[in-house]
TrEMBL record:
Provenance organism: Pedobacter psychrophilus
CDD domains attached to this UniProt entry: SRPBCC (cd07812)
InterPro entries, per the entry: START-like_dom_sf
Gene3D superfamilies with a match to the protein in the record: 3.30.530.20
Name of the featured protein: Orotate phosphoribosyltransferase
One function term, GO molecular function aspect: glycosyltransferase activity
Keywords in alphabetical order: Glycosyltransferase, Transferase
């Protein structure tokens, strides 16, 4: 399993950050420009990654003000899990995105940089929305 991780500290209460992340409708705001054909509900999101693949994701578990686990609902090019965790630190919230992917050597060479870039983009984009 290959793990990609990125963290950000937000000057927001944990309840607001968790509420934002637990609704997949909000995740479009966290996506890079090469994502299109976005459609979503609170629990599911479907989109296309330019020149790569179509993905369908679904929230598989939520733990109030702690974590959200998102898994593919259809065949993905490889097994993948996205996990957002939130942790209160004084008046701030530490948000962490961990993407775990089952990559063979060839896929690891091709997908590692784009996946790390995606994880970093999503956490930095989390600083921009108004909660």
């Amino acid at each position: 399993m290959t793990v990609f991780e990125s963290k950000i500290t937000l000057d927001q209460p944990i309840e607001k950050v968790y509420a934002f992340l637990s609704d997949l409708n909000n995740h479009e705001q966290l996506m890079p420009e090469n994502i299109y054909n976005w459609s979503s509900t609170k629990d599911e999101a479907k989109f296309t990654i330019q020149n790569m693949a179509k993905l369908s994701l679904k929230v598989s578990a939520r733990t109030q003000n702690e974590q959200i686990i998102i898994l593919p609902t259809e065949d993905a090019p490889f097994a993948i899990e996205m996990k957002w965790t939130v942790l209160q630190s004084g008046t701030e919230t530490l948000a962490t995105l961990i993407v775990s992917a089952e990559l063979n050597m060839m896929m690891k060479m091709l997908a590692s940089k784009p996946l790390q870039k995606l994880v970093d983009h999503q956490t930095s984009a989390l600083a921009k929305p108004s909660f």
